[in-house]
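STRUCTURE:
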């Protein structure tokens, strides 16, 4: 035979039967244990001997009892964790078991004739423990996320430093330190790309070899600092006078090479060479000195004057010597 009393005493719910005057007619073992009373001896006493109810809460409780008896159905009495419904007067725990989280109390009619109801006080301990576990897991996760974010930040910082170092190394390997123009290494790479591209397309491109006239005399008379400033000025002038698609490189000393892609006719290169000569011979002011610099240009054309780096540079250089021999400040195309 099923022992109902044993089942009632085993569940984690406080069960009390009281009348409209709050006299206690029954308490289950769970409630007696937590209130630290004898379940038999408490029968006949008032509910207020076990629970600390203020006047407002007492009125609310009586209203719920009346509702349950009038409607002959359950009345639900709830409050959040900041307003404890049934604080225990003599709890065996430091803090009342009902003071954890939200309390849920259901009032069910027991005897309409005797105006008795059964009060069910739901134990939220398991929910409290689950909440505490979830809070701990959330805190652990938050700490882990914080550590992960700090690690990610460090990795991003290291990555940015590495990228900057790579950029610096690349620039040092491919650009002239004085003028910031392409150096021989980058010139070689771009010239090979142009050769490969134009071999397939059948188009032409030009190689312009520039050398400043009488630069050694300027360097010797005015000093290397002034010479460097002239080279920087010439580099800027060349960049401004050419297209972004062209490559302007410092070949060494006062020598510059310009790769001009997509050339239809020789006259296009002649126009560009004339433009460069006029741009460079414009007066420049360096350290309060008004200086005039001129340049001579030798030109070779792919594929007529060569199909590799050395041939194109060599033939442009030969044309440059012809230009210098004919009085400087002019250009010549290799023939």
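SEQUENCE:
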């Amino acid at each position: 035979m099923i022992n109902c009393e044993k089942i009632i005493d085993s569940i984690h719910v406080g069960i009390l039967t009281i009348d409209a005057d709050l006299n206690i007619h029954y308490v289950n073992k769970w409630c007696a244990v937590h209130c630290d009373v004898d379940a038999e001896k408490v029968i006949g006493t008032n509910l207020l001997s076990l629970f600390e109810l203020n006047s407002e809460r007492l009125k609310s409780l009586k209203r719920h009892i009346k509702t349950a008896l009038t409607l002959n159905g359950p009345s639900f009495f709830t409050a959040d964790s900041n307003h404890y419904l049934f604080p225990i007067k003599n709890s065996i725990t430091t803090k009342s078991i009902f003071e954890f989280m939200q309390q849920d109390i259901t009032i069910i009619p027991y005897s309409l004739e005797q105006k008795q109801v059964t009060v069910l006080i739901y134990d939220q301990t398991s929910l409290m423990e689950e909440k505490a576990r979830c809070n701990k897991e959330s805190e652990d996760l938050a700490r882990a996320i914080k550590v992960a974010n700090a690690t990610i930040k460090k990795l991003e910082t290291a990555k940015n430093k590495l990228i900057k170092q790579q950029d610096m190394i690349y620039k040092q390997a491919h650009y002239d330190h004085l003028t910031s123009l392409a150096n021989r290494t980058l010139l070689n790479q771009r010239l090979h790309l142009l050769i490969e591209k134009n071999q397939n397309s059948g188009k032409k491109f030009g190689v312009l070899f520039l050398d400043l006239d009488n630069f050694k005399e300027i360097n010797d008379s005015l000093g290397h600092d002034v010479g460097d400033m002239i080279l920087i000025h010439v580099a800027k002038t060349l960049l401004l006078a050419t297209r972004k698609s062209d490559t302007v490189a410092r070949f060494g000393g006062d020598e510059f090479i310009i790769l001009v892609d997509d050339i239809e006719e020789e006259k296009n290169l002649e126009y560009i060479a004339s433009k460069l000569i006029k741009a460079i011979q414009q007066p420049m002011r360096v350290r309060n000195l008004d200086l005039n610099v001129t340049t001579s240009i030798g030109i070779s054309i792919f594929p007529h004057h060569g199909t590799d780096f050395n041939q194109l540079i060599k033939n442009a250089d030969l044309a440059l010597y012809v230009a210098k021999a004919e009085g400087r400040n002019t250009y010549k195309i290799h023939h």
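REMARK: The first strand starts at residue 13 and ends at 19.
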